[in-house]
Amino acid sequence: MSGKKQKKVAVIGDNLDEGRQINALMDSRYIQILIFLTIIAFFLRLYNLGFNSLWLDEASTNMIALKSFSDIWQVTVAGEFNPPLFYWMEHIMVMIIGNSEFVLRLLPAIFGIATIPLIYLVGTEYRNQNVGIIAAAAFAFSPFLIIYSQEARAYSVMLFFITGAMLFYLKALKTNDIKNWILFGILSALAFWSHFYAFVMVVSFMIYAIMIHIKDIKRDLNYIKPFVISLITFVGLSLPLIIVTIDLFAKRSSSAPTYGIQGMGVITETFVQISGYSEIIMYMFMILFVLGIIQAFFIDKERATFLVWSVVSIFLVSYFLSFKIPMIPRYLQFLAIIFFIGIAMSYKMFFVIKPTKKIIYGMTLLFFIVSIPFYTGYYSQESKTDWRGFSKILEKNTNYGDYVVFVPAYIQTPTEYYYSNKTNGVMFISAYTGKDLDSIQKNNNSIFYVMTGDVMAADPTGSARDWIFKNTKLIAQYNDIYLSVR
Hints:
With 486 residues, the chain is mainly alpha-helical. The chain folds into two domains: 3-378, no CATH class; 387-485. Helix content is 70%, strand content 5%. It contains 26 helices and five strands. It has helices at 3-27, 29-46, 56-65, 69-78, 85-96, 101-126, 129-141, 143-149, 155-175, 178-194, 198-212, 214-219, 225-252, 264-274, 279-299, 301-321, 335-345, 347-353, 358-369, 372-378, 387-397, 412-418, 421-424, 434-438, 455-458, 463-471, and strands at 403-407, 427-430, 447-452, 473-478, 481-485. The chain has a five-stranded mixed β-sheet with strand order 2-1-3-5-4, with helices on both faces. A hairpin with a 2-residue loop joins strand 4 and strand 5. The longest helix has 28 residues, at 225-252. The radius of gyration is 26 Å and the shape is globular.
């Protein structure tokens, strides 16, 4: 047979092998369930995506995303609470597709959907396909993750990258392969460029890798080379942001936070929210998590220790930081990976009683059943501050030449998304304190004051709130937004 014919036969043989592999993959019950879960996640994250109006943080996303790439970086340097990667991505979305609530939230929804197959791979790498499919179900149906996949913020993007980083991290722990370590470094950097707090989990992972391999490193220093290359990759890609982060942390921690959760409340509230905003479900999930950890220790002490270390180290850091900077459970969204992997491991306990696949299907179904009460309310009523509705009230009450004062100043941003003061000839003014309000001179036109219930977070002294109560007349209240006139 000639060389050309041999080559042709070889190519045909390779194609046949690939075809068999694809068929085998598609015939796998696990893959079928995963595809089904991903489709469900698709609908849960895209349904009514533009229903809620943009709230404060989402309006800030829009405002920043409309800037140029260089200006977005300058906003970060100036003190923005989120790194620029998500804003750069949103900038491209808005420029190409257009500007609407749906478009602004589409990117987080896509990343939220893409995380489902990714967490399946993490669970499979951690233990097996059973753990992978249970963890994928938990992610697909999770109210906590659905909410932040439908919000124009960086949380679901960060979660996608940190989940991918964990996949290659687990591979690297097992093989010490340089390729896996480099991919871990790259994805960790992308997670950090998406949200500052990802840095905490990345550092936790790195410390654990050194802890469990310290004996190997002492025996042979070459063993640490792949890890060092991963570290250099992460630092090299993140260096500009690391420098900015150090400066921003020094500024933000110079005074006590005026909002957020402090101390042990960070731990309990994070678990409640990850569990679907229900204490009862949280207790049930915590029992399953502990059972999963116990089972993991029987199978692989190293992997079990990893779960415990991740939760404990991250919460200790968060506990300490909660007294320095504002701490909110959504910053710790990546703990859902550890929490649901631990819960998924509990299936082995039930296998002892009766080893049947029905246990896997039952646990998968459990995550859907406990989330039904959330679905019934979430998709049918406003779950965010309705600035769209309030702007209509403001428009009805104001006339050409009137002043509108925003207290605190930052709530002007979501109003401007829905209400154009240029079109209506209204002057916008921002204020934070009672002194700021005193300085506004009254003329023949009306002065309207817009205040939100969180005004004390911006002005802990209460001077602005007291000034408005004393000097203005309340004419409308819409949710947590108050409209007064003078």
